[in-house]
Amino acid sequence: MGHPILVDRSSRASRDERRLFHVEVPADDPFELVGDGPAMQTLRTPIDAVARSSAPVLVIGETGVGKELVARNIHAQSPRHAGPFVAVNVAAIPTELLEGEIFGHARGAFTGAIQARRGLLTEAEGGTIVLDEIGDISVPFQAKLLRVIQFGDVRPVGSDRTHHVDARIVASTHRDLPALIADGKFREDLYYRLNVLTVRVPPLRERRDDIPALAEHLLRLARSRTPASPVQTIGADAMRSLASREWPGNVRELASCIERAVVFGVDEKLDVVGSVPCAAGRSTSFVLEAPLSLRRMIHEYVGWVLQRTRGNKQRAAELLEVDMSTLYRWRKRWSEGDMARRKLRTESKRPNTCAG
Protein backbone atom coordinates (compact mmCIF):
# COMPACT_ATOMS: atom_id res chain seq x y z
CA MET A 1 0.00 0.00 0.00
CA GLY A 2 1.41 3.40 -1.00
CA HIS A 3 1.75 6.33 1.32
CA PRO A 4 -1.29 8.62 1.45
CA ILE A 5 -1.22 12.22 0.42
CA LEU A 6 -1.60 14.25 3.60
CA VAL A 7 -2.86 17.81 3.82
CA ASP A 8 -2.96 19.47 7.23
CA ARG A 9 -5.37 22.41 7.23
CA SER A 10 -5.13 23.29 10.93
CA SER A 11 -2.92 26.37 10.45
CA ARG A 12 -3.40 29.62 8.56
CA ALA A 13 -0.16 29.13 6.62
CA SER A 14 -1.20 25.76 5.25
CA ARG A 15 -4.64 27.07 4.35
CA ASP A 16 -3.04 29.93 2.43
CA GLU A 17 -0.72 27.62 0.54
CA ARG A 18 -3.68 25.62 -0.85
CA ARG A 19 -1.56 22.83 -2.18
CA LEU A 20 -1.24 19.08 -1.73
CA PHE A 21 2.01 17.55 -0.67
CA HIS A 22 3.27 14.02 -0.27
CA VAL A 23 4.60 12.95 3.09
CA GLU A 24 7.06 10.08 3.29
CA VAL A 25 6.08 8.19 6.42
CA PRO A 26 9.25 7.17 8.34
CA ALA A 27 9.93 3.63 9.49
CA ASP A 28 8.87 4.61 13.02
CA ASP A 29 5.45 5.64 11.78
CA PRO A 30 4.00 8.58 13.79
CA PHE A 31 0.56 7.60 12.46
CA GLU A 32 0.77 4.12 13.92
CA LEU A 33 -1.86 3.00 16.40
CA VAL A 34 0.34 1.77 19.24
CA GLY A 35 -0.71 -0.85 21.76
CA ASP A 36 -2.02 -4.41 21.91
CA GLY A 37 -4.26 -4.16 24.97
CA PRO A 38 -7.95 -5.13 24.93
CA ALA A 39 -9.13 -1.56 24.27
CA MET A 40 -6.87 -1.17 21.23
CA GLN A 41 -7.85 -4.57 19.88
CA THR A 42 -11.49 -3.52 20.22
CA LEU A 43 -10.70 -0.27 18.37
CA ARG A 44 -8.89 -1.94 15.47
CA THR A 45 -11.86 -4.15 14.64
CA PRO A 46 -14.24 -1.31 13.62
CA ILE A 47 -11.42 0.56 11.89
CA ASP A 48 -10.79 -2.46 9.64
CA ALA A 49 -14.51 -2.81 8.90
CA VAL A 50 -15.16 0.90 8.32
CA ALA A 51 -12.16 1.24 6.01
CA ARG A 52 -13.80 -1.05 3.44
CA SER A 53 -16.79 1.28 3.05
CA SER A 54 -17.21 4.72 1.48
CA ALA A 55 -20.03 5.77 3.81
CA PRO A 56 -19.61 8.76 6.18
CA VAL A 57 -17.89 8.02 9.48
CA LEU A 58 -18.30 9.67 12.87
CA VAL A 59 -15.27 9.36 15.15
CA ILE A 60 -16.03 10.24 18.77
CA GLY A 61 -13.79 10.53 21.80
CA GLU A 62 -12.34 12.89 24.36
CA THR A 63 -9.88 15.63 23.47
CA GLY A 64 -6.40 14.30 22.81
CA VAL A 65 -7.29 10.61 22.31
CA GLY A 66 -6.12 10.56 18.68
CA LYS A 67 -9.30 10.90 16.63
CA GLU A 68 -7.44 12.23 13.59
CA LEU A 69 -4.96 9.37 13.91
CA VAL A 70 -7.90 6.95 13.69
CA ALA A 71 -9.19 8.83 10.64
CA ARG A 72 -5.76 8.56 9.00
CA ASN A 73 -5.75 4.82 9.59
CA ILE A 74 -9.24 4.47 8.11
CA HIS A 75 -8.05 6.33 5.03
CA ALA A 76 -4.76 4.40 4.77
CA GLN A 77 -6.58 1.04 4.85
CA SER A 78 -9.32 2.09 2.44
CA PRO A 79 -9.49 1.78 -1.36
CA ARG A 80 -8.92 5.57 -1.37
CA HIS A 81 -5.48 5.33 0.23
CA ALA A 82 -3.72 6.65 -2.89
CA GLY A 83 -5.93 9.76 -2.87
CA PRO A 84 -5.55 12.90 -0.77
CA PHE A 85 -6.16 13.03 2.96
CA VAL A 86 -7.42 16.47 3.97
CA ALA A 87 -7.89 17.29 7.65
CA VAL A 88 -9.39 20.55 8.85
CA ASN A 89 -10.37 21.74 12.31
CA VAL A 90 -13.62 23.49 11.48
CA ALA A 91 -13.81 25.03 14.96
CA ALA A 92 -10.55 26.90 14.29
CA ILE A 93 -11.94 28.76 11.25
CA PRO A 94 -14.14 31.84 11.79
CA THR A 95 -17.76 31.18 10.84
CA GLU A 96 -17.75 33.85 8.13
CA LEU A 97 -14.78 32.17 6.40
CA LEU A 98 -15.74 28.53 6.88
CA GLU A 99 -18.05 28.20 3.86
CA GLY A 100 -15.43 29.54 1.45
CA GLU A 101 -12.77 27.36 3.02
CA ILE A 102 -14.76 24.16 2.67
CA PHE A 103 -16.71 24.82 -0.54
CA GLY A 104 -14.34 27.25 -2.27
CA HIS A 105 -15.28 30.60 -3.78
CA ALA A 106 -15.61 32.29 -7.15
CA ARG A 107 -13.51 35.24 -8.25
CA GLY A 108 -14.97 38.46 -6.88
CA ALA A 109 -17.22 36.63 -4.41
CA PHE A 110 -16.12 39.03 -1.68
CA THR A 111 -13.56 41.74 -1.06
CA GLY A 112 -10.11 40.32 -1.60
CA ALA A 113 -11.27 37.34 -3.68
CA ILE A 114 -9.04 38.24 -6.62
CA GLN A 115 -9.10 34.70 -7.99
CA ALA A 116 -11.27 31.62 -7.71
CA ARG A 117 -10.20 28.97 -5.22
CA ARG A 118 -11.04 25.34 -4.85
CA GLY A 119 -12.49 24.38 -1.51
CA LEU A 120 -11.11 21.65 0.70
CA LEU A 121 -13.88 19.29 -0.40
CA THR A 122 -12.65 19.60 -3.98
CA GLU A 123 -9.04 19.14 -2.87
CA ALA A 124 -10.13 15.86 -1.25
CA GLU A 125 -11.50 14.52 -4.55
CA GLY A 126 -10.93 10.78 -4.71
CA GLY A 127 -9.75 10.68 -1.10
CA THR A 128 -10.91 11.52 2.41
CA ILE A 129 -11.75 14.76 4.18
CA VAL A 130 -11.81 14.93 7.98
CA LEU A 131 -14.01 17.60 9.55
CA ASP A 132 -12.64 17.80 13.08
CA GLU A 133 -14.79 19.27 15.89
CA ILE A 134 -17.94 18.99 13.79
CA GLY A 135 -20.05 19.72 16.88
CA ASP A 136 -18.88 23.34 16.88
CA ILE A 137 -20.13 24.48 13.47
CA SER A 138 -23.11 26.80 13.13
CA VAL A 139 -26.60 25.52 12.34
CA PRO A 140 -26.80 27.42 9.00
CA PHE A 141 -23.56 25.83 7.84
CA GLN A 142 -24.83 22.43 8.97
CA ALA A 143 -27.70 22.75 6.48
CA LYS A 144 -25.26 23.40 3.61
CA LEU A 145 -23.04 20.53 4.67
CA LEU A 146 -26.05 18.21 4.78
CA ARG A 147 -26.69 18.71 1.06
CA VAL A 148 -23.09 17.85 0.23
CA ILE A 149 -23.32 14.61 2.21
CA GLN A 150 -26.66 13.71 0.60
CA PHE A 151 -25.87 14.45 -3.03
CA GLY A 152 -22.16 15.26 -3.27
CA ASP A 153 -22.94 18.61 -4.90
CA VAL A 154 -20.76 21.60 -4.00
CA ARG A 155 -21.50 25.23 -4.86
CA PRO A 156 -18.58 27.63 -4.27
CA VAL A 157 -19.37 30.93 -2.57
CA GLY A 158 -20.41 33.52 -5.15
CA SER A 159 -20.96 30.97 -7.91
CA ASP A 160 -24.24 29.99 -9.60
CA ARG A 161 -22.89 26.57 -10.59
CA THR A 162 -22.52 23.34 -8.67
CA HIS A 163 -20.13 20.50 -9.29
CA HIS A 164 -20.00 16.96 -7.98
CA VAL A 165 -17.27 15.93 -5.55
CA ASP A 166 -16.34 12.36 -4.69
CA ALA A 167 -14.75 12.64 -1.25
CA ARG A 168 -15.37 10.45 1.75
CA ILE A 169 -16.38 12.47 4.81
CA VAL A 170 -15.07 11.56 8.24
CA ALA A 171 -16.36 13.80 11.03
CA SER A 172 -14.94 13.82 14.53
CA THR A 173 -15.93 15.44 17.80
CA HIS A 174 -15.49 15.34 21.55
CA ARG A 175 -18.94 16.86 22.02
CA ASP A 176 -22.15 15.01 22.97
CA LEU A 177 -24.07 15.46 19.70
CA PRO A 178 -27.43 14.06 20.99
CA ALA A 179 -27.27 16.63 23.81
CA LEU A 180 -26.57 19.38 21.26
CA ILE A 181 -29.56 18.18 19.22
CA ALA A 182 -31.77 18.45 22.32
CA ASP A 183 -30.52 22.02 22.81
CA GLY A 184 -31.23 22.94 19.18
CA LYS A 185 -27.54 23.43 18.39
CA PHE A 186 -27.09 20.50 16.02
CA ARG A 187 -29.34 19.28 13.25
CA GLU A 188 -30.81 15.85 13.84
CA ASP A 189 -30.87 15.01 10.13
CA LEU A 190 -27.17 15.86 9.80
CA TYR A 191 -26.41 13.69 12.81
CA TYR A 192 -28.09 10.69 11.20
CA ARG A 193 -26.27 11.32 7.93
CA LEU A 194 -22.89 11.46 9.70
CA ASN A 195 -23.60 8.70 12.17
CA VAL A 196 -23.79 5.94 9.57
CA LEU A 197 -20.60 4.33 10.87
CA THR A 198 -19.31 5.23 14.34
CA VAL A 199 -15.89 4.63 15.85
CA ARG A 200 -15.34 5.42 19.53
CA VAL A 201 -11.73 6.09 20.53
CA PRO A 202 -11.15 5.11 24.19
CA PRO A 203 -9.48 7.54 26.60
CA LEU A 204 -5.99 6.69 27.80
CA ARG A 205 -7.24 5.74 31.28
CA GLU A 206 -9.15 2.85 29.66
CA ARG A 207 -6.01 1.50 27.98
CA ARG A 208 -3.37 1.65 30.70
CA ASP A 209 -1.87 -1.62 29.45
CA ASP A 210 -0.80 0.26 26.31
CA ILE A 211 0.96 3.15 28.11
CA PRO A 212 4.43 1.51 28.31
CA ALA A 213 4.51 0.74 24.57
CA LEU A 214 3.01 4.14 23.75
CA ALA A 215 5.52 5.95 25.98
CA GLU A 216 8.44 4.15 24.30
CA HIS A 217 7.02 5.01 20.87
CA LEU A 218 6.64 8.68 21.83
CA LEU A 219 10.15 8.67 23.30
CA ARG A 220 11.59 7.55 19.95
CA LEU A 221 9.69 10.29 18.13
CA ALA A 222 10.75 12.94 20.68
CA ARG A 223 14.40 11.86 20.45
CA SER A 224 14.25 12.17 16.65
CA ARG A 225 13.33 15.83 17.17
CA THR A 226 15.96 16.41 19.89
CA PRO A 227 18.81 14.02 19.01
CA ALA A 228 21.26 15.78 21.36
CA SER A 229 19.18 14.84 24.42
CA PRO A 230 20.92 12.47 26.86
CA VAL A 231 17.61 10.72 27.58
CA GLN A 232 17.65 7.22 26.10
CA THR A 233 15.20 5.11 28.10
CA ILE A 234 12.36 5.25 30.62
CA GLY A 235 13.10 3.39 33.84
CA ALA A 236 10.70 1.09 35.65
CA ASP A 237 9.73 3.58 38.39
CA ALA A 238 9.02 6.34 35.89
CA MET A 239 7.04 3.96 33.70
CA ARG A 240 4.90 2.86 36.66
CA SER A 241 4.26 6.55 37.39
CA LEU A 242 3.16 7.18 33.81
CA ALA A 243 0.86 4.14 33.80
CA SER A 244 -0.82 5.17 37.07
CA ARG A 245 -1.84 8.70 36.07
CA GLU A 246 -5.29 9.73 34.91
CA TRP A 247 -4.17 11.70 31.83
CA PRO A 248 -7.16 14.05 31.34
CA GLY A 249 -5.44 15.27 28.16
CA ASN A 250 -5.03 11.67 26.98
CA VAL A 251 -2.35 10.77 24.41
CA ARG A 252 -1.68 14.42 23.60
CA GLU A 253 -0.83 15.10 27.25
CA LEU A 254 1.40 12.03 27.46
CA ALA A 255 3.20 13.09 24.28
CA SER A 256 3.85 16.56 25.73
CA CYS A 257 5.14 14.98 28.93
CA ILE A 258 7.60 12.77 27.06
CA GLU A 259 8.69 15.68 24.86
CA ARG A 260 9.51 17.82 27.92
CA ALA A 261 11.36 14.91 29.52
CA VAL A 262 13.55 14.55 26.43
CA VAL A 263 14.25 18.28 26.06
CA PHE A 264 14.89 19.01 29.74
CA GLY A 265 16.31 15.64 30.81
CA VAL A 266 19.92 15.50 32.01
CA ASP A 267 20.28 11.74 32.59
CA GLU A 268 20.31 8.79 30.24
CA LYS A 269 17.43 7.11 32.02
CA LEU A 270 14.21 8.54 33.42
CA ASP A 271 14.12 6.37 36.51
CA VAL A 272 12.31 8.35 39.22
CA VAL A 273 8.84 9.87 39.33
CA GLY A 274 10.17 13.41 39.65
CA SER A 275 12.29 13.11 36.52
CA VAL A 276 9.20 13.05 34.31
CA PRO A 277 8.05 16.71 34.13
CA CYS A 278 4.31 16.17 33.79
CA ALA A 279 1.34 17.78 35.50
CA ALA A 280 1.90 15.60 38.57
CA GLY A 281 5.34 15.26 40.11
CA ARG A 282 6.80 18.02 37.94
CA SER A 283 10.48 18.60 38.52
CA THR A 284 12.63 21.27 36.93
CA SER A 285 15.77 23.18 37.79
CA PHE A 286 13.95 26.49 37.47
CA VAL A 287 14.13 28.01 40.97
CA LEU A 288 12.84 31.38 42.09
CA GLU A 289 14.97 32.94 44.82
CA ALA A 290 12.28 35.41 45.84
CA PRO A 291 8.60 36.08 45.05
CA LEU A 292 8.14 37.80 41.69
CA SER A 293 5.29 39.45 39.86
CA LEU A 294 3.44 37.14 37.49
CA ARG A 295 4.80 39.10 34.51
CA ARG A 296 8.39 38.79 35.74
CA MET A 297 7.98 35.11 36.58
CA ILE A 298 6.75 34.36 33.04
CA HIS A 299 9.68 36.38 31.71
CA GLU A 300 12.19 34.37 33.73
CA TYR A 301 10.59 31.04 32.90
CA VAL A 302 10.40 31.70 29.16
CA GLY A 303 14.05 32.75 29.23
CA TRP A 304 14.93 29.50 30.98
CA VAL A 305 13.02 27.43 28.42
CA LEU A 306 14.81 29.24 25.58
CA GLN A 307 18.12 28.50 27.28
CA ARG A 308 17.29 24.80 27.58
CA THR A 309 16.23 24.65 23.92
CA ARG A 310 19.48 26.41 22.93
CA GLY A 311 17.57 29.38 21.55
CA ASN A 312 15.25 27.31 19.35
CA LYS A 313 12.16 29.52 19.44
CA GLN A 314 9.97 27.06 17.54
CA ARG A 315 10.73 24.29 20.05
CA ALA A 316 10.30 26.69 22.98
CA ALA A 317 6.88 27.79 21.69
CA GLU A 318 5.81 24.15 21.36
CA LEU A 319 6.91 23.35 24.92
CA LEU A 320 5.20 26.48 26.27
CA GLU A 321 2.11 25.59 24.21
CA VAL A 322 1.88 29.06 22.67
CA ASP A 323 2.16 30.17 19.05
CA MET A 324 5.25 31.88 17.68
CA SER A 325 3.54 35.28 17.50
CA THR A 326 2.84 35.15 21.25
CA LEU A 327 6.46 34.26 22.02
CA TYR A 328 7.78 37.08 19.83
CA ARG A 329 5.31 39.51 21.39
CA TRP A 330 6.46 38.57 24.88
CA ARG A 331 10.12 38.92 23.97
CA LYS A 332 9.57 42.29 22.27
CA ARG A 333 7.58 43.62 25.23
CA TRP A 334 10.21 42.50 27.73
CA SER A 335 13.06 43.83 25.60
CA GLU A 336 11.39 47.25 25.40
CA GLY A 337 10.72 47.15 29.15
CA ASP A 338 14.35 46.30 29.92
CA MET A 339 15.56 49.15 27.71
CA ALA A 340 13.23 51.60 29.45
CA ARG A 341 14.42 50.47 32.89
CA ARG A 342 18.09 50.79 31.89
CA LYS A 343 17.47 54.28 30.55
CA LEU A 344 15.72 55.26 33.76
CA ARG A 345 18.60 53.94 35.89
CA THR A 346 21.15 55.76 33.71
CA GLU A 347 19.31 59.05 34.00
CA SER A 348 18.91 58.70 37.75
CA LYS A 349 22.70 58.38 38.15
CA ARG A 350 23.48 61.59 36.25
CA PRO A 351 24.59 64.52 38.49
CA ASN A 352 22.05 67.26 38.97
CA THR A 353 23.56 70.32 37.23
CA CYS A 354 20.57 72.57 37.74
CA ALA A 355 21.17 75.68 39.86
CA GLY A 356 19.67 75.53 43.30
Describe the protein in words.
With 356 residues, this protein is of the alpha/beta class. Helix content is 44%, strand content 12%. It is built from 14 helices and 13 strands. It has helices at 12-17, 38-51, 67-76, 95-103, 120-123, 139-151, 177-182, 188-194, 211-225, 236-244, 250-264, 294-308, 313-320, 324-349; strands at residues 5-8, 21-22, 57-60, 84-89, 104-105, 117-118, 128-132, 153-154, 163-164, 168-173, 197-200, 233-234, 269-270. It starts with a strand and ends in a 7-residue tail after the last helix.
List the helices and strands and how they pair.
Elements: E1 5-8, H1 12-17, E2 21-22, H2 38-51, E3 57-60, H3 67-76, E4 84-89, H4 95-103, E5 104-105, E6 117-118, H5 120-123, E7 128-132, H6 139-151, E8 153-154, E9 163-164, E10 168-173, H7 177-182, H8 188-194, E11 197-200, H9 211-225, E12 233-234, H10 236-244, H11 250-264, E13 269-270, H12 294-308, H13 313-320, H14 324-349
Parallel strand pairs: 1-4, 3-10, 3-11, 4-7, 7-10, 12-13
Antiparallel strand pairs: 1-2, 5-6, 8-9
Distance between the termini: 89 Å
Low-pLDDT runs of 5+ residues are 1-30, 279-289
What is the correct CATH architecture of the largest domain?
A: 3-Layer(aba) Sandwich
Domain module tally: 3
Rough outline: globular
| CATH topology group of the largest domain | Rossmann fold
CATH superfamily annotation of the largest domain: P-loop containing nucleotide triphosphate hydrolases
Mean pLDDT: 77
Query: What is the helix content?
Result: 40-55%
Q: Report strand %.
A: 5-15%
Order of strands in the sheet with most strands? 2-1-4-7-10-3-11
